[in-house]
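Progress note, sequence design subtask.
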C-alpha cells in the first residue's frame, strides 16, 4: 500500500484572519467572503492554512473585488510556495554561513522531519537568493506598480534561524502582497530595524499608510522612529 505523504495529511491546521477591515483604497468595510486553503511544509511539520479572505465590494472602487488576504500569511510563506519561509531561511543559512552542499542541506532538513526531495533544495536556495536580492531601488516593475497603487501598508517580520543568531527580516507590502526588501541580520536592535525600514520608506515613493508587525519592543521602537504617526497594527 502506498504510504500517505504528510503533505496530503497535514499535522496541524491554522486559521488566519485578515486584520485590515477597511478597504485601503476607498475606506469601505471589506467583509470576509470566502476561504482559501494551502498546505505548507514548515520546520514544525506540515500545516493546512485556512485563509479567510476579505474583499471590497464598493462599485467603482479601484480595488473592487480584489482579495485581501490575512497579513500573517506572508510571514509564514512566500506566494505559491509549498515550503515555509522558516525552511527557506534555514536552507539559506546552512548554505551561506556554513557553506553546506545541497546533499548536506537535504540531509539536515530531513533530520528535522522536513519531507523534501534533494532537487527541491536547489529550488529553496534559489528562492532564498531571490528574496535577499529583492531591492526596491533596482526594481522598476515594483516601483511602477507601487506608484499606480498610490500607497503601501507595510508588514515587517523576522524569522529567527534555528541554527544561529541570524534573523531573516522581510518587509512586505500588504496591499500587493509583494516582498519589498529582505535582509539577514545578526541582531535585530531598534537601530538596525529602523535603518531597514528607512531604506524601504525612502524607496517606495508613495505614502506608508500603515504597518503590521508583532509587538517586539525593538520593532515598536524602530516603527516609532521611522514612521511617526503611522497606524501600527500588532498581530
Ligand atoms: Zn474599496
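Output:
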Amino acid at each position: 500500500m502506498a504510504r500517505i505523504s504528510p503533505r496530503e495529511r497535514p499535522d496541524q491546521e491554522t486559521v488566519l484572519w485578515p486584520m485590515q477591515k477597511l478597504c485601503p483604497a476607498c475606506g469601505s468595510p471589506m467583509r470576509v467572503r470566502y476561504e482559501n486553503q494551502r498546505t505548507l511544509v514548515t520546520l514544525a511539520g506540515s500545516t493546512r492554512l485556512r485563509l479567510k479572505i476579505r474583499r471590497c465590494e464598493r462599485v467603482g472602487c479601484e480595488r473592487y473585488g480584489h482579495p485581501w488576504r490575512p497579513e500573517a500569511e506572508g510571514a509564514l510563506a512566500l506566494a505559491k510556495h509549498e515550503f515555509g519561509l522558516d525552511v527557506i531561511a534555514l536552507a539559506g543559512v546552512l548554505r551561506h554561513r556554513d557553506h553546506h552542499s545541497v546533499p548536506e542541506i537535504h540531509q539536515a532538513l530531513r533530520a528535522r522531519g522536513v519531507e523534501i526531495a534533494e532537487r527541491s533544495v536547489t529550488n529553496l536556495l534559489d528562492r532564498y537568493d531571490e528574496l535577499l536580492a529583492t531591492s526596491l531601488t533596482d526594481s522598476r516593475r515594483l516601483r511602477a506598480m507601487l506608484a499606480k497603487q498610490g500607497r503601501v501598508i507595510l508588514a515587517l517580520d523576522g524569522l529567527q534561524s534555528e541554527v544561529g543568531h541570524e534573523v531573516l527580516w522581510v518587509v512586505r507590502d500588504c496591499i500587493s502582497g509583494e516582498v519589498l526588501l529582505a535582509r539577514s541580520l545578526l541582531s535585530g536592535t531598534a537601530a538596525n530595524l529602523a535603518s531597514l525600514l528607512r531604506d524601504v520608506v525612502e524607496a517606495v515613493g508613495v505614502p506608508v499608510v500603515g504597518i503590521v508587525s508583532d509587538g517586539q519592543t525593538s520593532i515598536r521602537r524602530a516603527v516609532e522612529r521611522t514612521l511617526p504617526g503611522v497606524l501600527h497594527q500588532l498581530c
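The mean pLDDT is 92. Work on this subtask will continue into the next period as scheduled.
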